[in-house]
Design a protein that fits this description.
The strands form 2 sheets. Strands 10-9-8-15-14-13-12-11 form an 8-stranded parallel β-sheet. The protein starts with 31 loop residues before the first strand and ends in a 13-residue tail after the last helix. It folds into 2 domains: 132 residues, Chitobiase/beta-hexosaminidase domain 2-like (Chitobiase, domain 2, 2-Layer Sandwich), CATH 3.30.379; 323 residues, TIM Barrel. It is elongated, with a radius of gyration of 24 Å. 29% of the residues lie in helices and 16% in strands. It is built from 14 helices and 15 strands. It is of the alpha/beta class. Helix 1 runs parallel beside helix 2, helix 3 runs parallel beside helix 5 and helix 7 packs parallel to helix 8. Bound molecules: ligand TNX. The site of ligand TNX has 10 residues, from loops.
Length: 510
C-alpha cells in the first residue's frame, strides 16, 4: 500500500491522506507507463549504485532523498550482494531515447535507471522523485513508508527546447532566487533558462569594457517603482551557469536592443543620437528608447557586449531582444539587425530574438521567439521558409506574468487572463497555421517582473502554469483530464517544499 503516514498529528478531520501515488502520476506525462503491481521500498539499507561518470546525477538524487528520509543512501560503484539499490546505468540505452530520454524499471528488488547521457538519467531521477510519497520533498526527516510503484517507464521529449524566462531587469532577483527557480524548473524537465538581463529600468550583468552599465544601470533604486536594484557580477553569472548545467539547464542570456535600452543610455549618453542622457525610468512604459542606428559607437558597444557575454556563456544561444522597437524606424531596425545578427555568429553563438527580428533577412540563421496573440504570422512564416527556427511563447497562453483571473493581485492582463486550462490547451506544433511543426524547436514560458519582487511572487505566478507549459514541451500526449488529475496530486509536493502556488479553482488539490 503506497500511503504516507500523516506528517504531523493534525486533527483527524483535517488530515486527509495524501493521494496514492501510481506509476503514471508524473508531470510531464511520460511516453509509456506499464505498472506491474509490485512495490519497491526505499529503506535505511538502500544504496545508490552509480559509475563515477554519473556521479553528478547520483549526488543530485542522494540530496533529493536524504533530507526527508534521514537515510544515508551511500553512493557506490557496485552495491554489495543482496543490498537493495537504485542503480544509474549510463550509455547504450537505445537510439530512440536520444540524449534526454530514459528507461526506469522499478522492481521489488531494486530500481534501475538507464539513459544514453547524464541528462537522461537526471530526467529519470525527476520522474522517480514524483513516484515517492509527497513527503519526500520535505526538508526535514518525515515518518513515512517510502514506497515506489513497480513497473516500467520509457520516456523522451517531444521538443528539444523547453524553456522558462525570468526578467531580471524590471526587478532584480538574486542569484539564490534564480537557483531556487532552477531547482523547481528542472523537476519538470525544463532545460533552458532565459535571463532577460537589461531593459529600460535596469542593466543586470557586469560588462568590463562598459563598467557604468552596472555601476549606474544596476545601482540601488534601478527597477520599477525604484525598487529592485542590483546586478550579477561575472563570477555570479558563471556560478549560475555552472549551477544550471549541473541540473541539465542551459542559460540563455538576453540583452534587449535596439529598444528597451534606456538604462544603458542613462549610463552612457553617447548611445543616444543627441548625446544627452535621458532620465532614469522606474515606470512600466515600453517602446520609447532606441540605440542610435547611424552612430558607429553603437556598434562598438553592441560588439563589446556580445563578445563579453558570449565568452561567459557556454550554451549555444545569445538573445538580442528586438521587440517593441517603436522608437526605431523600420528602415533603421533592418539596418541594425542586418549588422548585429551576424555579430552573434562571429562570437560563436546562434542569434536568438523576439519574433520581430524575422523581418530582417539575416534572421534566416537565427531563432525567433513568437510572443504574439495570433494564429498566423506572415513575416515569421516567410523567415521560416528561409531557415529561421521558432520557439513558441504565445503571450495569451505561455506568459506567466499575466493574471489568472480578474482577482489576481500580481501580474498584468494585456494578453488576457490565463487560467491553468488556457495555459495547457494548445499545441506548440500547430498553433501558427503558417509555421510547420518541423520549424518549432519548442516552447518557453516568460515571466516578466514589472509587478514581481520576491521569490514568493515568482512562484505564485509560475506555479502551476509552468507545469502545463513544461508538459506541452516534453510530452507526446495531451489530455486535460489526465493533466488536471496529476496536477491536483502534485500540489502536496509544492506544499511539502514550501513553494508558493496559485490554488486554481479548476483543479481538485489533494
Ligand atoms: C511585452 S513580450 C514585452 C515586455 C513586457 C511584457 C509584459 C515582449 C517581447 N515585450 O517588455 O515586460 O510585455 O507582459
Amino acid at each position: 500500500l503506497a500511503c504516507a503516514l500523516p506528517l504531523t498529528a493534525a486533527p483527524a478531520a483535517a488530515s486527509a491522506a495524501p493521494p496514492r501515488v501510481t506509476l503514471g502520476s508524473v508531470i510531464p506525462a511520460p511516453v509509456s507507463v506499464h505498472a506491474d503491481g509490485s512495490t519497491f521500498s526505499l529503506t535505511a539499507r538502500t544504496v545508490i549504485e552509480s559509475p563515477s561518470s554519473a556521479r553528478n546525477v547520483a549526488d543530485r538524487l542522494a540530496s533529493a532523498l536524504r533530507p526527508a528520509t534521514g537515510y544515508r543512501l551511500p553512493i557506490m560503484a557496485q552495491a554489495p550482494a543482496g543490498v537493495p539499490a537504485i542503480a544509474l546505468v549510463p550509455g547504450h540505452a537505445g537510439g530512440q531515447l536520444g540524449a534526454e530520454g530514459y528507461r526506469l524499471s522499478v522492481r521489488r528488488s531494486g530500481v534501475t535507471l538507464r539513459a544514453n547521457e547524464n541528462a537522461g538519467l537526471y530526467a529519470g531521477v525527476q520522474t522517480l522523485r514524483q513516484l515517492l510519497p509527497a513527503a519526500i520533498d520535505a526538508a526535514t526527516p518525515q515518518r513515512a513508508r517510502w514506497t515506489v510503484p513497480g513497473g516500467d517507464i520509457v520516456d523522451y521529449p517531444r521538443f528539444g527546447y523547453r524553456g522558462a524566462m525570468l526578467d531580471e531587469a524590471r526587478h532584480f532577483h538574486t542569484p539564490d532566487e534564480i537557483k531556487a527557480y532552477i531547482d523547481e524548473l528542472s523537476r519538470f524537465k525544463v532545460n533552458y533558462l532565459h535571463l532577460h538581463l537589461a531593459d529600460d529600468q535596469g542593466w543586470r550583468i557586469q560588462i568590463d569594457s562598459w563598467p557604468r552599465l552596472t555601476t549606474v544601470g544596476g545601482a540601488p533604486g534601478t527597477g520599477v517603482d525604484g525598487v529592485g536594484g542590483g546586478y550579477l557580477t561575472k563570477a555570479q553569472y558563471r556560478d549560475l551557469v555552472r549551477y544550471a548545467a549541473a541540473r541539465y539547464v542551459t542559460i540563455v542570456p538576453e540583452i534587449d536592443m535596439p529598444g528597451h535600452v534606456n538604462a544603458a543610455q542613462v549610463a552612457y549618453p553617447e548611445l543616444t543620437c543627441d548625446g544627452v542622457a535621458p532620465p532614469p525610468r522606474t515606470d512600466t512604459d515600453v517602446g520609447y528608447s532606441s540605440l542610435c542606428i547611424g552612430k558607429e559607437v553603437t556598434y562598438k558597444f553592441v560588439e563589446d557586449v556580445i563578445r563579453e557575454l558570449a565568452a561567459m556563456t557556454p550554451g549555444p544561444y545569445l538573445h538580442i531582444g528586438g521587440d517593441e522597437a517603436q522608437a526605431t524606424t523600420p528602415a533603421d531596425y533592418l539596418t541594425f539587425e542586418q549588422r548585429v545578427l551576424p555579430l552573434v555568429a562571429k562570437y560563436g553563438k546562434t542569434a536568438y530574438g523576439w519574433n520581430e527580428i524575422a523581418a530582417a533577412p539575416a534572421a534566416s540563421s537565427a531563432v525567433a521567439q513568437y510572443w504574439g496573440l495570433d494564429t498566423s504570422n506572415p513575416t515569421l512564416a516567410a523567415a521560416v521558409a528561409k531557415g529561421t527556427k521558432v520557439v513558441m511563447s504565445p503571450a495569451n497562453k505561455a506568459y506567466l506574468d499575466q493574471k489568472y483571473d480578474p482577482s489576481t493581485v500580481l501580474g498584468l492582463d494585456w494578453a488576457g487572463y490565463i487560467e491553468v486550462r488556457t495555459a495547457y490547451d494548445w499545441d506548440p506544433g500547430t498553433l501558427l497555421s503558417d509555421v510547420p511543426a518541423s520549424a518549432v524547436l519548442g516552447v518557453e514560458a516568460p515571466l516578466w517582473s514589472e509587478t514581481l519582487r520576491s521569490l514568493d511572487d515568482i512562484q505564485f505566478m509560475a506555479f502551476p502554469r509552468l507545469a502545463a507549459i513544461a508538459e506541452l514541451g516534453w510530452s507526446h500526449s495531451h489530455d486535460w483530464d489526465s493533466f488536471r488529475a496529476r496536477l491536483g496530486a502534485y500540489g502536496s509536493r509544492w506544499v511539502a517544499q514550501d513553494v508558493n502556488f496559485y490554488h486554481s479553482p479548476q483543479i481538485d488539490w489533494a
